Amino acid sequence: MSAPVFLAEAGDLGSLVPGDTYLLDGLEGRHAGVVQRRGVGERIDVVDGAGLRLTCRVTAVQASEVTLEVVSVEREPSDGVSLVLVQALAKGDRDELAIEAATEAGVDAVLPWQAERSVVVWRGDRAAKSRARWVATVRAATKQARRASLPGVGDVVDAKGLAARTAQVVAAGGTVLVLHEEATLPIAQAVLPGLPALGAGAQGLAARTPEDSATGSDAPREILVVVGPEGGISERECTLLTESGATLVRLGPHVLRTSTAGPIAVALLSERLGRWA
């Protein structure tokens, strides 16, 4: 069975090497020592949310402080692509279910979208509290999935803001895919950054080219997956996004709920990118 994962603050782990001692305290220490009752000799992993993972052995437990011996240090490599789920706000907890499952499936970031047909509206204090719930949901799902990378949660955008983000992503060599039931292009045939065009059967990322370095594209190229609310994406929003460079794609033969469409798309794209090979 894989070891449980605990999150450290960014930057706390960078200087550690095998044989060092690390003190897991605070809320994560309490979760390990008091809630999960981890004991001496057990293995746990500590990650920094940015791809760094410490494999550790528990050497002492005192209430909410767990002393660890670092056994190994591993940094997960980046494939040069950032997979972002743009999730429309949805009633109930359907949007939170979507980002939870997408995090488990390997999404790199999530962006809340105040779509025209969203029943839920984020304003003022509610916006801050709702985004905080998304952050907590993503954090818990990251630990559940034993991930070393913690997806970021952006600030809520409206249609105009999403169109501007779309134009930026496309200009930087990325792709914006809008899931739409009337689209004719299957998501499996959409052009993705780092893959040959429509590369049937191609797996894994294509090699980076000299042009990539010349244009300063060391930053991950983004793939945005846009999912609408229960009532769907409006015609005006579709026009706004496609005029900004987005592509409408069909996920499959059936119409999926807003809570399931995003995670399934993330899984399919992860397979195409070779992440699940």
What does the model show?
By secondary structure, the chain is α/β, with parallel strands linked by helices. It has two domains: 5-75, Ribosomal Protein L25, Chain P, CATH 2.40.240; 81-272, Alpha/beta knot, CATH 3.40.1280. The protein is built from seven helices and eleven strands. Helix 2 runs parallel beside helix 3, helix 2 packs parallel to helix 7 (258-272) and helix 4 (159-171) packs parallel to helix 6 (235-243). The protein is elongated and about 60 Å long. The chain starts with a strand and ends in a 5-residue tail after the last helix. InterPro entries: Alpha/beta_knot_MTases, PUA-like_sf, RsmE, RsmE_MTase_dom, tRNA_m1G_MTases_N. Its main location: cytoplasm.
Topology overview:
Blueprint: E1 5-7, E2 21-24, H1 26-35, E3 43-47, E4 52-62, E5 65-75, E6 81-88, H2 94-105, E7 109-113, H3 124-144, E8 152-153, H4 159-171, E9 175-179, H5 210-214, E10 221-227, H6 235-243, E11 247-249, H7 258-272
Parallel strand pairs: 1-3, 6-7, 6-10, 7-8, 9-10, 9-11
Antiparallel strand pairs: 2-5, 3-4, 4-5
